[in-house]
């Protein structure tokens, strides 16, 4: 008799986005004349940079001629892209990462989800609360947790991210083997300084742990003192894997391209305590289960590293940052405490009531959609997340409506 993976039954059904959609639909039916403004979802709204469109057209034409046609490419990504990544995103910032330490993929969601496969099933896992739900759910699926009780899974080391610690969790008293960190953070919008990140790197070194660093929002960093990569921190090559994506910097959410960095100096242990390099393990996983990102998409991603490409990313992210600043300014002026909105497209608001009460209030009175913070973890209760991914005009209109009702 075929049996299921019962770990899937432990998953807390995620009603968050379907619940939001249901309430928005009900509001829209009752108020057909009001245009609902969505500041909820973490998806971009503006078109791909022109350099990408040009590169896509050219690459598609190449695929139409036998002499320049491309079949399977290298699973890890074409060297033309990996070299640009290593030069621009790392070497230029003093981080010593080489092209063969970079694995190009079709998304950071998959990479942050799949990476846990190369670690033992009994690894102790530390996960921030609140955070991007993928880290937790994939460890539940892999059987690294017990049941959920009172909103928390047994066996997980939760890293509480709260206003009193500026949404940078304290180092845990337990000894984790795997530590997830995400900065600039989704959903809190918080950033981490080199000093604070350095403490985590030292902690990982001391505990023979690995940090999984999700830098999906690095392109929103304007404060030059903040690290864009964990490899800007001394010692990180020995303890960290980094995830980057073209989704939020260049609008690739529907185009799909990302990459993961696994330094060749990264080691982990077998049961007998012998050290093993992680790079060949991830390489094996990647090549066995993935067949590469399509050639035109990799060409489009590579085009972002030209001077025009860099300018176009800057223009896109500046646009969303202007929205973020406006939201932060307006919500703060109404007497609410906010995090994020600077160096990040998310604004995390202490709603002074339950997350869902705040959500319902601004939906039903103002026709504005946000995301209830409790959907990102227990510590998100009482907060809501505004996303800056919309047009400036819509954000202005949304803020005007909210000002009238709060
Ligand atoms: C959007 C996002 C990603 C990127 O996911 P893709 O699969 O590359 O689109 C990764 N991590 C976080 C925290 C995100 O919010």
Task: Describe this structure as you would to a colleague.
The chain is an alpha/beta fold. It folds into two domains: 6-47 and 308-405, Aspartate Aminotransferase, domain 1; 53-306, Type I PLP-dependent aspartate aminotransferase-like (Major domain) (Aspartate Aminotransferase, domain 2, 3-Layer(aba) Sandwich), CATH 3.40.640.10. The protein is built from 13 helices and 17 strands. The strands form five sheets. Strands 2-10-9-8-7-3-6 form a seven-stranded mixed beta sheet, with helices on both faces. Helix 3 packs antiparallel against helix 10 and helix 4 (79-90) packs parallel to helix 10 (295-303). The longest helix is centred in the last third of the chain and has 27 residues, at 307-333. The termini are far apart. 45% of the residues are buried. The mean pLDDT is 97. Bound molecules: pyridoxal-5'-phosphate.
Keywords:
alpha/beta; 406 residues; 13 helices; 7-stranded mixed beta sheet; Aspartate Aminotransferase, domain 1; binds pyridoxal-5'-phosphate; Aspartate Aminotransferase, domain 2; 4-stranded antiparallel beta sheet; 17 strands
């Amino acid at each position: 008799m075929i049996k299921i993976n019962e770990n899937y039954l432990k998953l807390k059904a995620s009603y968050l986005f379907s619940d939001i959609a249901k309430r928005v639909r009900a509001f829209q039916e009752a108020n057909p004349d009001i245009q609902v403004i969505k500041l909820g979802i973490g998806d971009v709204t503006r078109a791909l940079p022109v350099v990408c469109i040009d590169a896509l057209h050219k690459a598609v034409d190449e695929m139409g001629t036998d002499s320049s046609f491309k079949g399977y490419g290298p699973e890890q990504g074409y060297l033309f892209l990996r070299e640009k990544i290593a030069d621009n995103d790392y070497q230029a910032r003093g981080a010593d990462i080489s092209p063969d330490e970079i694995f190009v993929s079709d998304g950071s969601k998959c990479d942050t989800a799949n990476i846990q496969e190369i670690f033992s099933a009994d690894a102790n896992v530390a996960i921030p609360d609140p955070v991007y739900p993928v880290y937790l759910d994939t460890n539940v699926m892999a059987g690294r947790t017990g049941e959920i009780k009172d909103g928390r899974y047994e066996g997980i080391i939760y890293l509480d991210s709260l206003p009193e610690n500026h949404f940078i969790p304290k180092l845990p008293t337990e000894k984790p083997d795997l530590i997830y960190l995400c900065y600039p953070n989704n959903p809190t919008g918080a950033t981490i300084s080199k000093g604070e990140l350095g403490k985590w790197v030292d902690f990982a070194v001391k505990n023979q742990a690995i940090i999984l660093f999700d830098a999906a929002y690095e392109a929103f960093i304007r404060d030059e003192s903040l690290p864009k990569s964990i490899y800007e921190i001394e010692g990180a090559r020995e303890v960290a894997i980094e995830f980057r994506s073209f989704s939020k910097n260049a609008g690739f959410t529907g185009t799909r391209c990302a990459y993961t960095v696994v330094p060749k100096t990264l080691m982990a242990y077998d049961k007998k305590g012998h050290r093993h390099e992680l790079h060949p393990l991830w390489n094996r996983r990647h090549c066995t289960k993935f067949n590469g990102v399509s050639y035109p998409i990799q060409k489009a991603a590579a085009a972002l590293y030209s001077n025009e490409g860099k300018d176009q990313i800057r223009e896109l992210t500046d646009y969303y940052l202007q929205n973020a600043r406006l939201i932060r300014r307006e919500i703060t002026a109404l007497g609410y405490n906010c995090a994020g909105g600077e160096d990040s497209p998310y604004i995390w608001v202490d709603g002074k009531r339950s997350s869902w009460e705040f959500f319902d209030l601004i939906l039903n009175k103002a026709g504005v959609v946000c995301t209830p913070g409790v959907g990102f973890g227990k510590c998100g209760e009482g907060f809501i997340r505004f996303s800056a991914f919309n047009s400036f005009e819509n954000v202005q209109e949304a803020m005007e409506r909210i000002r009238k009702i709060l």
